[in-house]
Design a protein that fits this description.
alpha+beta, Alpha-Beta Plaits, three-stranded antiparallel sheet, 3 helices, 3 strands, 22% strand, globular
Length: 78
């Protein structure tokens, strides 16, 4: 199993990123959520900024399938 990290998608904000994180974790796929924008200190909150989601390379295909099923086939690209 590879521990390489791969980009999965961009969520439009933190609540949506956390939603997808929960969906993927429920499927047994570990997720790294990285906030966009200037960071937490920039304007006090990153909740309204886009967030990138990353998974292990070995989980990427399965994660894409899960997100595509639930999102109607639309993944947010960087």
């Amino acid at each position: 199993m590879s521990d390489d990290i791969a980009f999965l998608m961009t969520a439009p904000n933190e609540p949506m990123a956390r939603f997808w994180e929960d969906v993927l974790l429920d499927a047994g796929i570990p997720v790294l959520v990285r906030p966009g924008g200037p960071g937490a200190g920039g304007w006090g909150s990153v909740a309204t900024f886009a967030h990138d989601l990353y998974v292990r390379q070995d989980d990427l295909s399965r994660a894409r399938e899960i997100v595509a099923e639930d999102a109607g086939g639309e993944l947010g690209e960087p």
